[in-house]
Amino acid sequence: MSQTSPASKNITSVSQETRVFEPNGEFSTAAHISSLTQYRRLYNESIRDPEKFWAKQAEQELIWFKPWKKVLQWKVPDAKWFVGGKLNVSHNCLDRHLSTPLANKAAIIWEGEPASPGKPGEERVLTFKQLHREVCLFANVLKRNGARKGDRVLIYLPMVPEAAVAMLACARIGAVHSVVFGGFSAQSVADRIADCGAKLVITADGGFRRGATIQLKKNVDDALVLKDASGKRLAESIERVIVLRRASNDIHIEEGRDVWWHRELEYVDANCPAAHMDSEDPLFILYTSGSTGKPKGIFHTTAGFLLGAKLTSRLVFDLKPDDLYWCTADVGWVTGHSYVVYGPLANGATSLMYEGAPNFPEPDRFWRIVEKYGVTILYTAPTAIRAFMKWGVEWPKKHNLTSLRLLGTVGEPINPEAWMWYHEVIGGGRCPIVDTWWQTETGVIMITPLPGATPTKPGSATLPFFGVVPEVVDDQGKPVPTNSGGKLVIRKPWPSMLRGVWGDPQRFREVYWSEIKGSYFTGDGCRRDKDGYFWIVGRIDDVLNVAGHRIGTAEIESALVSNPNVAEAAVVGRPDELKGQALVAFVTLKTGVKAHPQLREELRQHVAKEIGPVAKPDDIRFAESLPKTRSGKIMRRLLKQIAAGDEIKGDTTTLEDFGVLARLTQGEE
Ligand code: 7RM
Q1: What is the DSSP string of 296-323?
Q2: Which residues contact 592 (CB under 8 A, 6 or more apart)?
Q3: Pairing of strands 534-539, 500-501
Q4: Which of 227, 556, 559, 633 is the right S-S partner for 610, CB 3.0 to 4.6 Å?
């Protein structure tokens, strides 16, 4: 019997989903956007005359050193927004609040990972004034260590306030930051340095995760000596490493290259004027997986990104002066950029930052924090919600969660069951849920309910944000009929759109702008219902979404093949109740190498070392050969079905060797 996988269950239940949740009256009355009529009127305005709409927003939302001359200059695929304008992101997140009553308000409330059960985590509060001071000091440290406008700076830090300080300090002097998630390996750090030519690394001695110490500095040391195939050192552009003391673990300090963050502070003052940046000066690069082995350096620029982050933060999360807002994402992901740091701070909101894991020391960690601080807005990922469901309602039930007034999700499609659980158990049935669809590339939220205006349907990201023109199309770019599946594209440019793939304009055109002529191709499959609601089905390329982390199959395959025992590897996703997708690797071994369980573990560790623990295959299946087309392309569609335990369906006529398939389905090794 073929087994029904959770994901296919989701898709069926999503397509049959009929529940509608009207916005709650009391919430709506006080909301920034308080009715569907108001949303539609503003949306129509934003679409009818986008330049007029965005000019007005840019004027209202941002502080400019010099006004722009032209709102938009657009020639597919290159957009320039607010041409000629000058501003600074750190000035807009910090300085602007210092002359207001917000100066002494908490900008960041940080909760550290607890040492042990019962013991509270460390706690730190930085007001806007204090954060401004820290940022100015550290910006001067950056300058002292050679960072100049336009230089790239790699940030490899745990979830501590200094991660935000480092990002804002780069923005202050016009250096371009590239944050690398602390769970990534030395190899990933080295590859990213090589790609963007970073001059500095900002790291910590170590970070804490579930009671263990992550050796961040050690990884950087290893990264700095790694070489490419031709023997060239990957990180040769690095001149300095600035090291934050966090875990106090033993580390090596390379004289002349490495300096301690706290020691450097002794040499600087807190006077650091914000650099006048051009609207289109790059703000950050963030590496994200694509369908080839090499991650893409998505880059964003100053004005458009900030405007999008600020406006969406306020309207989607309905931010009010007394909110305590918590986005659980790590700053290593785009969500941490737009919705932990830049968006909330630009709005003068208090952003809570948490260092650790949701279930350490116990599975009520999040609920403890919500109760302790009186969190009012919680933004997290479906994979976390599914994990909480599995751990049981007794954990949230132990805590008073009545401070919550709004819930959000991001990162992957949320199945209606998880949506309902979130709504009832966490939201107590009172809180609207904003299911927000967007990408590293889009910079900010694109399809989302507005909580006081949009009726929600469990599993749908609902309607486009202002100025966003999404459409579901067929391979020719023609809109598909209501309820039919198709490709999700964005028809018109928007201020916070990516400006390119760092150093690779050709890849930018190929990946995003050649699938459907004239439109931005998202890589996602989608359906639109009779009410115009968008239902995202997931990626249609070879990119997987494992527990909210975006990972390219090709990246893992190239890591596996770099092990001397492996001949060939194909990685596919398998629906997983908790993580959304689990990783299944089909591996063929080199002649003479015998498959055995230890090798399986060795390969998993190998991938962890090459890419990071998030990319470790959940399941490794040794195979004699892989199913391929006659032209040599691995038939992933078949492998996916095998991995999910489904029957083999669909066209197999291009398959080169039917025997391969039979052997794989019989589970032979
Ligand atoms: C913010 C982020 C982007 C991919 C995207 C989708 C998936 C994200 C949702 C979603 C369904 C959502 N950036 N995705 N949000 N799918 N509903 N609300 O996640 O670059 O890391 O990933 O994530 O496939 O293309 S990302």
Answers
A1: EEEEEEHHHHHHHHHHHHHHHTT--TT-
A2: none
A3: unpaired
A4: 559
CA-based nearest residue to 150, from 283, 279, 271: 283
CA distance 354 to 113: 7
Q: What does each C-alpha distance from 268 to 89, 90, 91 come to in angstroms? A: 22, 19, 19
Tell me which amino acid residue 201 is.
Answer: V
Atom of ligand 1 nearest to the CA of 441: 20
Pocket test of ligand 1: the residue of 501, 524, 535, 542 to mutate, having most ligand atoms within 8 Å of its CB, is 524
Instruction: CATH number of the domain at 556, please.
Output: 3.30.300.30
Sequence-distant (6+) residues with CB within 8 A of 481 are none
440 lines ligand 1 (CB under 6 A): yes
Cα within 13 Å of Cα(452), Cβ side: 17
Q: Please state, in angstroms and rounded to a whole number, the distance separating the CA atoms of residues 347 and 314.
A: 7
335 Cα nearest atom in ligand 1: 1
In a domain, 630, yes or no: yes
Residue 79: which of 60, 54, 62 has the closest Cα? 54
pLDDT tens digit string along 539-590?
787 788 888 888 878 788 888 988 999 988 899 999 898 888 899 999 989 8
SS3 state at 72: strand
Decide: 574 and 640 in contact? Cβ < 8 Å: yes
One DSSP character per residue, 17-52 reads: ----BPPPHHHHHHSSS--HHHHHHHHHHHHHSHHH
Nearest alpha-carbon partner for 524 in 484, 480, 489, 479: 489
550 lines ligand 1 (CB under 6 A): yes
In a domain, 401, yes or no: no
617 within 8 A of 661, measured Cβ to Cβ: no
Give the contacts of 40 (CB within 8 A, at least 6 positions apart).
none
Nearest-angstrom CA–CA distance, 616 and 635: 22
CATH number, residue 196:
3.40.50.12780
Rounded to the nearest angstrom, the distance between the alpha carbon of 611 and the centre of ligand 1 is 20
CA of 137 to the centre of ligand 1 (A): 35
Strand residue runs (E) in 193-295: 200-204, 207-209, 212-214, 240-244, 258-260, 277-278, 282-288
Q: What is the pLDDT of residues 33-72, one digit of tens each?
A: 999 999 999 999 999 999 999 999 999 999 999 999 999 9
The range of the structural domain enclosing residue 220 comes to 62-300+318-357
Q: What are phi and psi of 342, to 5 degrees?
A: -65, -50
Distance between CA atoms of residues 19 and 420, nearest Å: 10
454 within a domain of the structure (yes/no): no
Given a cut of 70, is residue 25 above it in pLDDT? Answer: yes
As a residue count, the chain comes to 669
Asked if residue 411 lies in contact with residue 545, where contact means CB atoms within 8 angstroms, the answer is yes
> Average pLDDT of the chain?
92
Please name the residues in contact with 476: beta carbons below 8 A apart, sequence gap of 6 or more.
none
How far away, in angstroms, is 445 Cα from ligand 1 center?
Answer: 10
Q: Which of 438, 440, 546 to mutate to test the pocket of ligand 1 (most atoms within 8 A of CB)?
A: 438
Number of domains present in the structure of the chain:
2
**Cα separation of the two ends of the chain:** 22
The enclosing H or E element of 514 equals none
Q: What is the pLDDT of residues 261-282, one digit of tens each?
A: 999 999 999 999 999 999 999 9
Q: Is position 409 within any domain?
A: no
